[in-house]
Amino acid sequence: MNSCARIGDKATPVWHNQQSRKTPWLFYFDEFRIGGVEIGQILFVHALLVAFFLLRPLLVRLLRSARDGDVHWSVVTLPASFVIGIVASYWMMDRISGFWS
Predict the structure, then answer these.
(1) Phi/psi of residue 22, each to 5°?
(2) Contacts of 11 (CB under 8 A, 6+ apart)
(3) pLDDT tens digits, residue range 46-56?
(4) 41: nearest Cα among 14, 3, 8
(5) Alpha-carbon gap, residue 101 to 92, rounded angstroms
(6) Residue 16: its pLDDT value, please?
(7) Domain boundaries, the chain
(8) At CB < 8 A and 24+ separation, what contacts does 6-11 make?
(9) What is the pLDDT of residues 19-48, one digit of tens each?
(10) CA–CA separation, 72 vs 60, rounded Å?
């Protein structure tokens, strides 16, 4: 169940302490225990971006065609698309099978 479904009617802004600082509910992770997942997702995406930008010069050298000098990214993107699709299909079937368990 995602964090929005758990919050339910409390999806309107909730303030931690009315008298002192005003903290929007999205940044107040203790109440709903949702902060760790979102922070983990953001850190994972940032780690992938950093890895891509660090490896990009190497990939450009490896993927440069001797014939026309262009970089052919389809050598990387096509297999990556298949892997993402296979993993997503597995997760979807796993979730759907949980409906009847």
Answers:
(1) -105, 120
(2) 4
(3) 999 999 999 99
(4) 3
(5) 15
(6) 47
(7) 1-63, 68-101
(8) 6/32, 6/34, 7/32
(9) 555 555 555 555 555 566 678 788 889 999
(10) 9
pLDDT in tens, 46-94: 999 999 999 999 988 888 877 788 888 888 889 999 999 999 999 999 9
Amino acid identity for residue 95 in this structure: R
| Stated length of the chain | 101
CB 23 within 8 A of CB 17: yes
Beta-carbon count within 10 A of 28 CB: 16
Distances (CA, A) of 9 to 2, 5, 75: 14, 9, 48
Query: What is the rounded CA–CA span in Å between residue 50 and residue 37?
Result: 20
